[in-house]
Design goal:
The complex is a heterodimer. Chain A is built from 2 helices and 25 strands. By secondary structure, chain A is mainly beta. Chain A has one domain (6-407): AttH-like fold, CATH 2.40.370.10. By secondary structure, chain B is α+β, with helices and mostly antiparallel strands. Chain B has 4 domains: 1-60 and 244-383, no CATH class; 67-233, no CATH class; 445-517 and 709-848, no CATH class; 527-695, no CATH class. Chain B is 62% helix and 15% strand. Chain B contains 28 helices and 20 strands. In chain B, the strands form 3 sheets. Chain B has a 9-stranded mixed beta sheet, sandwiched between helices. In chain B, strands 3-4-8-5-7-6 form a 6-stranded mixed beta barrel. In chain B, helix 2 runs antiparallel to helix 13 (355-382) and helix 26 (759-801) packs antiparallel against helix 27 (811-838). Chain B is elongated. The two termini of chain B are 23 Å apart. The chains are: A mainly beta, B alpha+beta. Chain A binds chain B through residues 26-27, 29-39, 46, 49-50, 53-54, 113-114, 116, 118-127, 129, 149-152, 154-157, 170-171, 197, and chain B through 71-72, 74-75, 78-80, 82, 84-85, 88, 110-116, 118-119, 121-125, 127-131, 134-139, 193-196, 198-199, 204-205, 213.
């Protein structure tokens, strides 16, 4: 299960489960058409009407995440075009040799606009759409920049393939660093190269696998709603050593740090009544990771499907049940300068049974992606008490959706 | 002053017919100018709106001379050069059986790339579901107006013929752009996904162009530079402004043609007005003289007449505006049709009622009226009060004026010729010269009339005796009234003669050219959006089947491309000629067989007369083309007469073309048949060979020839309409002027009746006299019309199009002119004669 779920892009309450990412991609595409080259923000009414026009979407013709399956690699690194939605979601914290710290987010979403490919002789012909989000937080410089891209999965503009791994939208790319070598180490795309640019930022990283991949949910089947099929297939790499360079306004920094990859595909996932999503991916200095998400319901409460998980230094997965085994309490507020939308900013995260008590603070207050659908996703600092009561520090990423624009009812 | 106003009103109300005709004269002048201006404006606006809507916020485009670029170029630009605001566009035309008479503009786009360019492709305001468009193969989106017109709704299939192939494309969405401009611009657009557009237009792998949005700053210039450096040979970057200028430049010559017509209409309208006003003044000399005698000052007289003229001008201009709008509705259809025939598909959404054009027409109408009224007003005011009243004095003076007017007229003609010999392509200059000549000839007409009447007097005397002599003398004796009428009549008739001769010469030249050029027996092409230029690419297998027909003994292939180079459009043609087709070219100079031998050998290109004329080139100069391997200069080895394209054409042999360009396509085919073969039957055979779902147009030589002439006739429809208008106005003018003249002679005729003339004799006298005037006008109009046509053919046409036309003066045009004047004049005499013969002489003698 995941935080990088569709609701990351969620605009408003879905009419039915699982629409969100598709709505988001298609909607974004339409809205992107209205705005200039870099849509800064959109107005809520238009978004809502788009959702209304897309209200007829159903799951017929798509593959569904109905039961536990065997993951097969390298194929599963690549696309699953029979499912409506899929993403490659990488976040991470980096430090330069000079000690300058950065956070980054790199996401490529794939969305099937229809179950079947239209066919035809043209290289442009496709039912696959791609959207990319890229953000860099210059923590030291207290600066945040973000950019989005859209492209069809045709004519070479965007696409995904398993072997050698390559997922790209224009020149943003996540790929096997040495395509020739992947033939020999078949199951792994590592080391991987990540490349993105925009708004004066250029990022190039090589990612190692670090810990073994984690299959989320029940052996990789992540149930999101009560109905069968309202689920996704989901795995993650929670601690990938990253090395490379960040170029910011012409200044290049050699950087290294840790990254986190979420891979998920689904056709329908979410339940009704959810208004937003707070997601935490924390990487602690002692080798532990924590992932917690809270699905917020209309009435302000947390959906019982909210969840948490710990991953120990050996890569073992420890589930936490929401509410008693893990708690998240906001400790501060931040208002978006765009329209005053209020986000929580700063949290206390506890795992009472294990004695964990962490303070999570944004590395930079304003890390709101002012792309077609606004959300806050940013680097955070972690400090507090961790496993066995030891003081601990860490870094991580937090995503907050449903606070700005159309998400607010 | 109040008294004067009353006098003026009284005169006008008593001469209601005359008043009406004066107003009508102004109105017609204004209407013609306005309607032509409106028609041109509307066609241009239609073109501009549709171009702007289709190019959206594009600033630059990547285009190739050959009409398409490799689709991978987009990736180069977008990914390698990181130009985010870049969009692929695949464009073409289609027709649909549910939308008869319309050319649909297929606009193939990638919705994901459209953000910076075309807002209507976005969802949002139009509610367009782009995912349906992308995921439905060959899916199409129509604007609401088209869908309604075609009676199709979402989910239906739209039958379409594209490049000769029949398609049934699913209608996936209907858009209704919120703003009026986008609605107008999209009125003929069938929006498709780039994939679908490539498929139906048979452009898989190619894009018509790549739209770019480059900022107008340093970063933008750097981007442009980077792009320019990365472009493959044969692909260029153009700013949208230049591009649309080039496109509208294509209709520019046509535009000029119509502007010329509207200038002509203006000249013509001024004469009408002048005639009307002069007549109303001349007729009132007596009254005006009396007023002067009673102490009314000169200024007051001038003011009186000018005020009258002002009112006539205002009412006429208003009326003319209404008539003009009405006329424009008809003209705009013809103008659009012509543009579609000759240039490209344009859809005109109603009339563009620019306030400026109304202001221009009204100022013109009122101004011309005042200007025309000024000389007679000054003349009337300047007269000695006593003398003014005396007809004999007036006529005496008029006679003295005749030779002087002729002298001034001759000088004006000389000035006009001088102006015309200024080497310029500016039409206003040409028309200024023309105006001088027309005015000059008009001034010579009274003298001409006198000479003419003197010449026929003996003949009339012999035929009709005293009555004939009286009629002839009458014309000369009432010169003060008849001269303006005759001059106006001559101008009007000569315009119809001039236009008639020009059209006739043009058509004759075209027929001759077609006879020489169309050598093959059967012509095959694809159905396309414009009637006169073949487009698209024929299927190789169909060509193979056709040339394999047992009765086909040889063939020529033709590849035509519309290119733009240095902002000027022209057509590039590659020819593979059957030996029988080689004689088709008529060269300005040089031996045809030598030139054709060098042409075959690929030593250079041949260029059409308009091409070299427009660019100031001549034989031996070279033409630079962007080929697949960069710019290449090719020598012009011959210049041929060509009336097919006013932009100009450059032709090369197919073998040379294949060396220079990577384009195996064939646009059309000329087939030579075995001796004695029935071409109609062969055409039937060939059409039967075309696989189902495809369409070609196969025409026999005769059919193509007459189709070409049809297009020509349509092109000159506007001119013909104007000529007809000139005709009608001339007729009305003659009728009114002469009828008024005769009615005014009531007293004189009453005297004749009283002295024993029978009503029949009187009628004969009147009709003979008006007929004489008509005849004089008709005869004088002939040389003047021919002079006009010489100017139009050898100066205006040559200068604006570079065409050499053979002048052809057919008797029917001349007879028409003389007949028009004569019939009009005789009819003008009939009513007064009939009226006089029914009035008792005593009553007539009482006068007013």
């Amino acid at each position: 299960m995941t935080a990088s779920v569709p609701s990351r892009l969620r605009l408003t309450r879905p009419r039915r489960p699982g629409l969100v990412a598709t709505v988001a991609t298609v909607g974004l595409l339409a809205v992107a058409g209205c705005a200039g080259p870099a849509p800064q923000s959109t107005d809520g009414t238009e978004t809502l009407s788009l959702v209304a026009t897309l209200g007829g979407l159903d799951t017929a013709g798509y593959e569904r995440a109905l039961e536990v399956r065997d993951f097969v690699f390298p194929e599963d690194h690549g696309p699953h075009p029979g499912f409506r939605t899929e993403w490659w979601y990488v976040t991470g914290n980096l430090t330069s040799r000079e000690g300058r710290t950065f956070g980054f987010q790199f996401t490529i979403f794939r969305s099937a606009l229809a179950p079947a490919d239209p066919g035809g002789p043209s290289a442009w012909s496709t039912n696959q759409a791609y959207m990319g989000h890229f953000a860099l937080t210059d923590i030291t410089g207290e600066d945040f920049r973000s950019e989005e891209r859209f492209a069809r999965g045709g004519a070479g503009l965007a696409g995904a393939q398993a072997e050698p791994l390559r997922v790209w939208i224009e020149d943003w790319e996540l790929s096997a660093a040495d395509p020739a070598a992947t033939g020999t180490v078949r199951a792994s795309p590592f080391p991987m190269t990540l490349r993105a640019d925009g708004k004066g930022v250029d990022l190039e990283l090589v990612l190692q696998s670090g810990k073994p991949r984690v299959l989320q949910g029940d052996r990789g089947l992540s149930q999101k709603g009560a109905e069968p099929g309202n689920a996704s297939y989901y795995y993650a790499h929670t601690r990938m050593p990253a090395e490379g360079r960040v170029t910011l306004d012409g200044q290049t920094y050699r950087v290294s740090g840790l990254a986190w990859l979420d891979r998920e595909w689904s056709t329908s996932a979410l339940s009704e009544g959810q208004v937003g999503w707070d997601w935490f991916a924390l990487q602690l200095d002692d080798g532990w990771e924590m992932m917690v998400y809270q699905l917020r319901l209309e009435d302000g409460s947390a959906d019982p499907l909210s969840d948490g998980v710990l991953i120990d230094p050996a890569g073992r997965r420890i589930s936490l049940s929401w509410g008693d085994q893990v708690t998240v309490t906001p400790t501060g507020r931040w208002r978006s300068p765009v329209d005053g939308a209020e986000y929580p900013s700063g949290w206390r995260v506890t795992v009472p049974d294990r004695g964990w008590d962490l303070s999570v603070e944004p590395a930079v207050l304003d890390q709101e992606l002012r792309v077609a659908f606004r959300y806050w996703e940013g680097a955070v600092r972690v400090e507090g008490v961790g496993e066995r009561g030891r003081p601990i520090r860490g870094r991580g990423y937090v995503e907050l959706t449903g606070y700005a624009g159309a998400g607010i009812e | 002053m109040r008294l004067l106003t009353k006098a003026s009103l009284r005169y006008l109300t008593h001469h209601r017919l005359q008043l009406l005709l004066s107003v009508l004269g102004v109105a017609l002048g204004v209407a013609v100018v306005l309607s032509i201006d409106l028609a041109i404006q509307s066609a241009q606006t239609g073109f501009r709106i549709s171009a702007e809507t289709v190019s959206g916020r594009t600033t630059h485009v990547l285009v190739s001379d050959l009409g398409s670029v490799d689709e991978r170029l987009l990736n180069t630009v977008r990914i390698d050069l990181d130009i985010t605001a870049s969009a692929p566009v695949v464009e073409g035309f289609a027709t649909s059986s549910v939308l008869p008479g319309r050319a649909l503009r297929i606009l193939g786009i990638d919705p994901f790339s459209e953000g910076p360019f075309r807002p209507y492709v976005a969802g949002g305001s139009t509610g367009l579901d782009v995912s349906e468009l992308m995921t439905t193969r060959t899916g199409v989106v129509l604007p609401a107006s088209l869908a309604e017109e075609g009676g199709v709704s979402v989910g239906d299939s739209l039958p379409m013929v594209v490049e000769g192939e029949a398609w049934s494309v699913p209608l996936v969405a209907i858009i209704e752009p919120a703003d009026e401009l986008a609605r107008a611009g999209l009125a003929d657009v069938a929006l498709m996904d780039v994939a679908g557009a490539q498929e139906v237009l048979r452009m898989v792998g190619r894009l018509s162009r790549i739209d770019l949005r480059i900022s107008d700053d340093e970063a933008g210039s750097a981007e442009l530079e980077a792009i320019a450096g990365a472009l493959p040979d044969g692909v260029g970057i153009e700013s949208v402004g230049t591009r649309s200028e080039t496109m509208s430049g294509m209709i520019g010559a046509f535009d000029v043609n119509l502007t010329a017509l509207s200038l002509l209409a203006l000249i013509f309208g001024m004469f009408l007005i002048y005639n009307a006003v002069t007549f109303s003044v001349v007729q009132r000399r007596e009254i005006l003289g009396r007023l002067r005698a009673l102490g009314v000052t000169r200024d007051e007289i001038v003011r009186l007449i000018l005020t009258e003229a002002l009112w006539i001008g205002i009412v006429g201009a208003l009326l003319g505006t209404l008539v003009g709008i009405f006329l424009a509705r008809g003209l705009v259809g013809m103008v659009t049709r012509t543009i579609n025939d000759l240039y490209f598909s344009v859809s005109v959404q109603g009339i563009d009622l620019r306030p400026f054009l109304f202001a221009k027409a009204c100022v013109l109408g009122v101004g011309a009226t005042l200007l025309a009224a000024l000389p007679p007003a000054l003349e009337a005011a300047g007269a000695n009060p006593r003398m003014a009243a005396l007809r004999s004095v007036v006529e005496g003076r008029a006679r003295v004026l005749v030779p002087r007017a002729a002298l001034v007229g001759s000088i004006l003609c000389a000035v006009g010729i001088g102006v015309l010999s200024i080497p310029t392509r500016n039409l206003v200059v040409s028309f200024t010269g023309l105006f001088f000549i027309i005015t000059g000839l008009a001034l010579i007409t009274p003298a001409g009339t006198l000479v003419l009447v003197a010449a026929v007097r003996p003949l009339l005397g012999r035929v009709w005796g005293t009555l004939g002599l009286m009629a002839a003398r009458g014309v000369g004796a009432s010169l003060s009234r008849t001269a303006p009428a005759i001059a106006a009549l001559v101008v009007a008739v000569s315009v119809t003669v001039g236009l008639g001769v020009m059209i006739q010469s043009f058509r004759g030249t075209l027929v001759q050219w077609l006879d020489g050029t169309l050598r093959a027996d059967v012509y095959v092409s694809l159905p396309g959006p414009t009637a006169s230029r073949a487009a698209g690419t024929m299927w190789p297998e169909v060509i193979e089947d056709f040339v394999g027909h047992p009765e086909v003994s040889g063939y020529s292939t033709y590849r035509g491309m519309d290119l733009v180079r240095d902002g000027e459009a022209f057509r590039l043609v590659a020819l593979e000629l059957d030996p029988r087709g080689e004689g088709a070219f008529d060269f300005l100079e040089g031996s045809s067989s030598d030139i054709m031998a060098r042409f075959r050998a690929g030593e250079g290109v041949i260029a059409s007369e308009p091409y070299v004329f427009r660019r100031g080139l001549e034989r031996g100069d070279s033409v630079t083309l962007s080929t697949a391997s960069g710019d290449r200069a090719l020598r012009i080895i011959g210049v041929f007469y060509d009336y097919g394209s006013e932009q100009g054409t450059v032709m090369m042999s197919r073998s040379l073309y294949d060396r220079l360009f990577d384009d195996p396509g064939v646009t059309s085919l000329g087939l030579f048949l075995e001796e004695g073969a029935d071409s109609e039957r062969v055409v039937g055979d060939l059409l039967a060979l075309v696989p189902p779902g495809r369409a070609v147009i196969a025409r026999t030589n005769d059919t193509l020839r007459s189709a070409s002439l049809e297009v020509f006739d349509r092109t000159f429809q506007v001119t013909a309409v104007l000529r007809l208008l000139a005709f009608v106005v001339a007729f009305v003018g003659v009728l009114s002027a002469l009828a008024a003249l005769q009615l005014e002679r009531a007293r004189e005729l009453g005297l004749l009746r009283a002295s024993g003339m029978t009503p029949g004799q009187l009628a004969r006298l009147v009709v003979t006299q008006t007929g004489l005037i008509g005849l004089a006008a008709g005869v004088l109009a002939v040389p003047m019309g021919i002079a006009l046509s010489i100017v139009m053919i050898f100066v205006v046409n040559k200068r604006s199009f570079g065409w050499t036309l053979n002048m052809e003066v057919g008797p029917e045009v001349l007879l028409q002119a003389v007949g028009l004047a004569l019939v009009g004049a005789i009819l003008a005499g009939v009513y007064p004669a009939w009226k006089m013969s029914r009035t008792s002489p005593a009553l007539a003698l009482r006068g007013e």
